[in-house]
Amino acid sequence: MSHELTPSSATEVAAFLKEVNTLPAKTGQGRLIFALDATASRQPTWDQACELQDAMFEAVSQVGGLQVQLVWYRGQGEFKTSRWFATADPLRQHMVQVRCLGGLTQIRRVLDHAARESKHHPVNALVFIGDCVEEPPDELYQRGGQLALLGIPLFSFHEGGELGAASVLRELSSLTGGAYCPFDQGSAAQLKALLSAVAIYAAGGRAALEYFSHNQGKIVKQLVHQIK
Q1: DSSP label of 7
Q2: What CA–CA distance (Å, rounded) separates 4 from 33?
Q3: CA angle, 97 as apex, 199 and 65 as ends, to 5°?
Q4: Cα separation of 98 and 104, whole Å?
């Protein structure tokens, strides 16, 4: 189902940033792993994500900053991770060089990578954008439990609404204390608002996200309510 979003006015955004700046400061920048399925069916949404990732940096530019690491998989076991990016332009330049290629999902490797990365740097949130789950759910749930122990919430943005994948991604997000949200290719504004919300959470915590959601549409408020 599609939800209408109410865009924040410039005044509301300014008020939000002013309020967030009064919250207790976090140590360092928020860190977010941005993981995408780059198998063949995903090219339209990959191109969309190249543009919308800017919103994550814009949303937190005055909140405390954000570092983003890109993770993607495609083809026959190809799995890639980037360095950490602190601004949108180099991340976009990295993303536009990737072309999607047929293959099976590798969500298990995404979850394992997030757990390993947290041993080197704190990871405040893991975003996954995909349309399919082709791995044994129990193996994913086991890893979801590990992320929960590490304090890494998974935010699953599910394209297409396939029921089996929806069930697994919803449960996996719940296990980690994150959230599940469906979207479609026509919901660019919706996905932009959701990515901005998760970036705010990674940089400023739940209090910042709750304030941000006050002037957002129903779908962002639903995301907040799912977070444990």
Answers
A1: P
A2: 27
A3: 20
A4: 17
Task: Break the chain into its structural domains and give their ranges.
Answer: 32-226
Using CA atoms, how far apart are residues 30 and 205, in angstroms rounded to an integer? 9
The answer to whether the beta carbons of residues 181 and 222 sit under 8 Å apart is yes
Residues near 144 by beta carbon (within 8 Å), at least 6 away in sequence: 111, 154, 171, 172, 175, 176
Per-residue tens of pLDDT for the chain, all 228 residues: 333 334 444 454 455 445 444 444 444 579 999 999 988 777 888 888 888 888 888 888 756 789 999 999 998 999 999 999 998 899 989 888 888 888 999 999 999 999 999 999 899 999 999 999 999 999 999 999 999 999 999 999 998 888 999 999 999 999 999 999 888 766 778 888 888 889 999 988 888 888 888 877 788 888 888 886
Sheet holding 66-74, edge to edge: 78-85, 66-74, 30-37, 125-130, 154-159, 179-183
The backbone torsions φ and ψ at residue 134, rounded to the nearest 5 degrees and listed phi first, read: -120, 20
Structure tokens given for 166: 């929806």
For residue 187, the surrounding DSSP H or E stretch is none
Closest CA to 195 of 38, 58, 72: 58
Structure tokens at 98: 């990737």
CB 96 within 8 A of CB 102: no
CATH of 32-226, one of 1.10.150.20, 3.40.50.720, 3.40.50.300, 3.40.50.410: 3.40.50.410
